[in-house]
Amino acid sequence: LETSIAEETILCAAAVIERGPDERTEHTFTGSEREIMVGLTALVREADPDIITGYNIDNFDLPRINTRMRDLTGSSDKAGAADAYGWGRVPLLDSEHKRLIPQRDGNRRTWRIQGRCVLDAWWQARTVLRPKRETLKFVCQLLWPEREDLQKMDVDASQMDREWAERPDVVLEYCLQDSLLPLEILSQIRAVHSKEALATVCGMPLDVAVAGTTSQWLDGLVIRLADRHNVAVPRTNRGGGRDQIAGGYVHEVEAGVHPWVAVLDFKSMYPSIMIANNICYTTRIDELARPDEIVEEGIHEAPDGARYLPATFRRGIVPRLLEDLMELRDRHKVALREAIENKDSTGEIFHSRMQYAVKILMNSFYGVFASKFYRFTHPELGASITAWARSNIKTIIAQLEEEGHPVVYSDTDSVFVRAPVDEAVPGKEPEEGEARGAWEGACTTMIEFGEELAERYSREGAELEFETGLSVFFSHGAKKRYIGRVVWPEPELLVRGYEVRRSDSFTILTDTMMEIFEMILDGESSDAVQHCLQLIKRLRAREVAPRDLVISRSCKGRVRPGGVIDFDAVYANPDSLPFVRAAKQRIEAGLNFTPGMKVGWLVTNGKNSPMTVQAWLEGETGVEQTEYDPEFYAKRIATALGRITEAFGWSKDDLLKGNRQATLFSF
Fold first, then answer.
1. Rg of the Cα trace of the chain?
2. Residue 553 CA: distances (Å) to CA of 231, 507, 640
3. How far is 188 from 186, CA to CA, in rounded Å?
4. Per residue in 649-667, pLDDT tens?
């Protein structure tokens, strides 16, 4: 839809019907609002699509049509409402009116259209790509930087009334392009394949896979199995809260560079623990258990004291289900490798999506077990799983240390072990000569070491895999923050926890961080520090492009009748928050804002309280933005990079000053 900013009415509409990758038809609608809506509705009913998509269709297009339908037809004109918005796959009867008109799914973001799936391309792109900004233009540039035919057209959406009055043909073409791009996005990220695979594995309709919750997906598996084994199904638990469950174990990491590290990973750690220890709502033993439910031998007692029946007495519903899922995933992984070897692209896509869908469901069980609401859970279940996980990993770490294999780091289900390789062997792959031979030998030694440890320490409920070989590992000493140069199984740079992993970080910071990571792993820590100092100097000289300083963050809000966004309903003091003020500036400029979307802004004065910000609208309005506060960004960068350079004696303050404070210990 293209809508009037002044009147909030529909100016024109467009749709693309896709029946296959090479079979598309394009449709445009002009005239009065009623004519546009009736024409669009007639197309939906005639084409009868299974999936309806659009970019931000959940939060803009569907609610806008709903509002205009109500304004034009009133509450009593059921026939008029059906003509304007009868998109449901049901007969055109008064008795079917409630199912005929699309409805918002309670207080959730999603909409439901009876008999069809609503798959919002914005939400899918947000989930899969995690882009720094979430406008359609930015996402298209991210996915297809070289394809002009898949870029959003140059129409000023903030002046849509003027554009429609002066260039209606261009606006209609722009509208049609906006209908085509969501289809291209879903195809590029294989969103439909993923949802179909999820629906297949959990045995639920496609609309539940698209718009359902994790507990609904698992219900599709657990309730069926419970029914087959005559196990009563509890109602959804709406009960009160409880103490937070203790998480996984995280081993302290020593700041600095560590050469030649083998990473061992527990295969499907939480599902394996549930299977090995028969953890299930149907096997938990408590003080209310009947005498005939208590056995004398084989009880699984968790480190936190919770107890579970042995599988020989009663196999739990969830462990039984997890075993089947693990076997199913292994089958798809084998088939995936065969498809890749045979260059079977269709088979590769299918088995890749299927094994990933199984993985999602398997890993979801711990989440619902640790929740307060799932029908098949109890407070002890999630706590038992993490207690066993902590015990397993601590035991292995102690054994490795006792054998003389230093554990560099450990996090929940991974152990980083120093391999028996000469520290003199370079971490960066040499091109040729003796150093090359030594490097290849070091790789072989590390791989053999990792595989031997994985085989030796694997046992039921704690199967270890040699996951990754690193030629060099670095951390500044904080948990869950590290980098490494992977040499096995495939060369890559491993980054965890730093700002490059955060979608709310700005471009120049993430780019610089990646550059200094490469320098550190190459043993060039002094060059890395100098690179940080030069960036701060360039910032203060205003030599950094403003587009590289845009900060982005998701902004919430509640949509009130008439489309007004209520920020006070979500935030206690919304005007103190830079992202809320940036969102309000978007709205004032006549640009689209959806609660939950990322908004971008530049800080123009960081000394004010609250700081002064300017929403980043250049890409949508074409108006150049140049103003920013260099000192604010210098401090932000020094803070982020200073955490890393502290490992080499350069603090945040040192970076800002441009030199290091000398002390008695410096000489």
1. 29
2. 46, 13, 17
3. 6
4. 999 999 999 987 654 444 3
